[in-house]
Structures
1.
Amino acid sequence: MKYYGASITRLIDELAGLPGVGPKSAQRMALYLLNAPAQVTQNLANAMLEARKNIRYCSVCSNLTDTQLCQICSDPRRNRDILCIVEEPKDVSAIEKVRGFKGMYHVLHGAISPRDNIGPDELTVKQLLKRLQEGTIKEVILATNPNLEGEATSLFLSQIIKPMGIKVTRLAYGLPMGASVEYADEVTLTRALEGRREIE
Amino acid sequence: MKLYKTDALVLRNLSRGDIDQLLVLFSLEYGKLKVMAHGSRKITSRKRGAVQPLTLTRFLIHKGRYLDSVRQCEELESFPELFLRMDRICYASYAVELIENSTVEGEANQVLFAVLVETLRQLGRGDPEIIARAFALKLITLVGYKPVLDLCAKCRKNLTGKALAFSPPAGGFLCADCARENSENQMVMCHRGTLETIKLMLAWELSKLGQLKVDSGTRGELYYVLKLHLEYHLGYRCATEMFIDKLRNRNNRYNTKS
């Protein structure tokens, strides 16, 4: 990027460091920001700094929030008997979008990965256990991803939660809308058959 | 258009962008491969199930200028029993990590491929720790780092006596005399039983290893022998092994507390 000045080159390099942004996209964004009204750039910079400064983890569920308690944890209408454990904050937003779940959440901020030496101590398992020991939770739904890491995480959590006398359930496996039976993998198809339901 | 077909085990899948994955495969015909599976993270992707780690898949791959890409794939075997227990997941991850780090891209090793597939089958049936140790021993033999087991690796005399030592720099087991002289090098002291267990593990088929009874002392020595040997020859420390140690220490800590 020696064709540009040092400050544009730096901006392009910083943008190219973001996930999913290649050098061409970074260049396009940088040139857009330079050509846009000064207020646009100012607002973006302020939004980033403000989010960075104010966002923290919810003291109960470890979700991202700008207050001590997140909106879900401070909502008195939520059912405090059921706890849904997810890997990332974006999973909370995905489940909230379907509006079918009215319980509470716990965000692990990752999944157990033997290959990457990521164990329970690198996740928010300690905070989860503390929460479960309070005794209000009757059921835990393990909503980790159905992949190697997600399965390892749910196996580990079920091993430590079940002895506490709490009901442990796992999100059902099945065929997604728009998929075809022909291309379903063995595990999905077997578990979808096991969990089949009568049509009402 | 250049297309080629191969049966391969998915060792690892790494997310690329929102919907793509970079796959690390261990294939029957071409050894270790890195290929792109475009769109495989989409919820309705036909490739999705077949590109999960620890899945044996038949791939149709398009040869690209820089990186090959998956055109079609069909799952052949998925080892569902592995996902029922944490120790099975851990030792299956250990096996694929060793394969990924001990093989070279593009170099086929059909015997090793067969051993890996059989290991994943047996991990779902037998004692995962013993199966995984036997796999590691077979792997180091197949990639050319088999330790000297019949004679002292230093003085070349018969290994007599119950107390022996294992030294990766020397290339195998040492007799008690050589072990005393070699004390400054990386070495682990072990019993004759460990040597005999190693010999059995190498000689027996993986499916027979369920009959092998290994006590906790031998398991411990086997762990150190393999750990030292793999670290010395492969030049890195196995992340999954560190994870297993961490989990074991954590469980011990909790058991002691309760």
2.
Amino acid sequence: MTAAAHGLRAWLLQRFTAAYLAAFVLYLIIRLGGGAPASFQAWHHWLAGPWVNLAAALFLVSLLGHAWVGVRDVIMDYVRPSGLRVSVMAAVGLFLIGMGAWGLRLLFLVAWRGA
Amino acid sequence: MAASEIRPKYLNLLRIRMPVGAVTSFAHRLSGVLLFLALPYGLYLFDLSLQNPEGFARAAALVHTPLVRVLSILLVWSLAHHLLAGLRFLLIDLDIGVARRGARRSAWVVNMAALLLVLAYAGSIL
């Protein structure tokens, strides 16, 4: 893949994930905006529902992809020495993968227990 | 050549007059980084709240501590600004509001709307 195509792919990823993130955040504000969930049972039950669970998993993956492109751009702009730049990017990448594993495992467990 | 090398450089942010769009853009970046830094804390609260009823109660109590309240104001601003400025950038990508007048006005609206939203939020929790 050429550098230009790679850039285009990142650009597209940033915009498609942005659209989904915005839509899901608005849904959350409407759904939960009236107040926090009343109880553990209500909260857990809501997230265990297959559609909400799947939408939340997609949200998490979109969020991490979006964060990766955004933070990578910031690093490329402000971290000049290439060795340091690669190290910081690797650390951010591992951190995001860790967040993804943590979040997806949690969502899966909630769906599993809820089912 | 020699003359051009003594041009004044104002790297002092207080002396640079940034166009309103630059403020929107820089704040979009800053708010994105803040949201990124908040990720593990948010995920921790999410995890805690889903473990069992005790965890849920602990997460709810944590959210109401003064420190988390103050931080939540910063995060609500970050989310509001990042979302609104992001929607503005998406519209500009679609060739909507590219002309200077419209772009300046929408940048100003985004900056102000994010501040108004966070003021309303801060007022509601303090």
